[in-house]
Amino acid sequence: MPLVKLADFYPEHRDADTDGRSDIKGFDVYTQADEKVGSIDDILVDDQTGRIRYLVVDTGFWIFGKKVLLPIGLANISYSDRRINVKGLTKQQVQDLPNFDELDKVDYDYEEQVRGTYRPNVMNTATAPSTTAYDRNTYSYDRDPGLYHLNEQNHQSLKLYEERLVANKQRQKTGEVSVGKHVETETARVAVPIEKERVVIERTTPTSGAVSNAADAFQEGEVARMEVYEETPEVRKEAFVREEVRVKKVVEQDTVEADETVRREELDLDTEGRSAVDRNRDQNRNRNR
């Protein structure tokens, strides 16, 4: 049955209601003879159930800084006096308790030594432990209700509940956007200027008709040749990037407000006769809200 410190098991214990026992650190511890033996240094809880099992009592200079464990069932807590009274406890019992320095050393044998010191305090009560032998394999804290149970009249408690709005977010699909491509055809027209060569034959009348070299006249087979060219259009298709389309998502934030009626329990106090009631604790809690 491993034990852990309350702050490790429940880090938010100071901000929540853990049966009204989350803020007793520093409370003074007194024996049945009204002798102060130390103050509360820490709280140990069951790592499975979270139930408080022990209060760590720092004896201070009284026993040279020794720390001991006090079962929660023996603690009678007075919030108004900021003290804890332990019925049947003596200074001798505190001296006989094993020193608490490391949580890892708290095993069954250690706890049995602690329980053996306190059991005489509850032997004559209705919550006395069983007379059967204790076994490390079958032992449970229910075997010692007088040490660990908070069912006595001085430990009665009344829980006040309240409702709080808890907001969560759920991600769900609202739609889908598909971006694709298709091919459209159209007729394109392009104008290409071209050049064509043509032969122009001009005839003129010479001013002088006499031939200086008669041998060049009247020869057959004489031909004048001239090459003629023209341009023809050449049209082909090439693919170019017309534009680039990027597809991405952006997140837009919005605040959605919701109103709901919540309930809270308040304490109704009805007293008869000359009952003494300490209201300081309730007033302090209301001021802290």
From TrEMBL:
A Pfam family of this chain: PRC
Annotated spans, Disordered: 262-289
GO biological process: photosynthesis, light reaction
Domain PRC-barrel: 20-92
SUPFAM superfamilies registered for this protein in UniProt: PRC-barrel domain (SSF50346)
Protein name in the entry: DUF2382 domain-containing protein
Source species, domain of life: Bacteria
Gene Ontology cellular component annotations, sorted alphabetically: plasma membrane light-harvesting complex
DUF2382 domain: residues covered: 158-268
